[in-house]
Predict the 3D structure of the following.
Amino acid sequence: MTLHSVAALPFPYSFEPEHTALIIIDMQRDFVEPGGFGASLGNDVGRLTAIVPTVQRLLELCRSHGIAVIHTREGHRADLGDCPPAKRLRGAPSLRIGDTGPMGRVLITGEPGNDIVAELAPRPGELVIDKPGKGAFYATPLEQVLRARAVTHLLFAGVTTEVCVQTTMREANDRGYECLLVEDATESYFAAFKTATLEMVRAQGAIVGWTAPLAAVEEALGPVVV
Ligand code: TIU
């Protein structure tokens, strides 16, 4: 067992790779590419596309150090049986969940838009959690899987910072996990919301968890092992 220490805020974050998982939240075409759910809500997806190379570096680093990798996808059943009307009917999006757009039916499991972007495609053996909500613990087996693998520490990346990433971090924090959000491997459609989320996560002595740039995680783990 090797304990690694990351130069994080508000103070150093220590973890053992054997008891740590990387959770990559919702790096799906539906959020990152034009024509998907994120764009249908009126968002400019360019800010999210820009982090794909950084998330890829983090993914390769974790894979090479034997850290378990878990991918999540937000999506609903084709019959919308797990999509509350409150979620589908809210606001006036250009396409609603279940409508057909350029990448298939919006936010429906199995449709092209629901796929994780090619650069971050899961490898065999990596867990993929399909989730109907913003948080990855709600209505999924995530907690059971983490307990079975004796995971105590979670590294977070993905989109969007203040919606699915923050919700999942808060769910994890309440379940006793030590959580680190990798600052440049997460993004929001709104720059100010990302900044605020990073600040509120680490405020009050890491009330939700820690934050650190990818470079600090790379420094803690050492180079990618090939
Ligand atoms: N709209 C938005 O910012 N996010 C979502 O709807 N889902 C996720 O964050 N994955």
About this structure: The first helix runs from residue 29 to 32. The pocket of tricarbonodiimidic diamide is lined by residues 26, 31, 38, 41, 74, 134, 159-160, 163-164, 189 (CB under 6 Å). The chain has a mean pLDDT of 97.
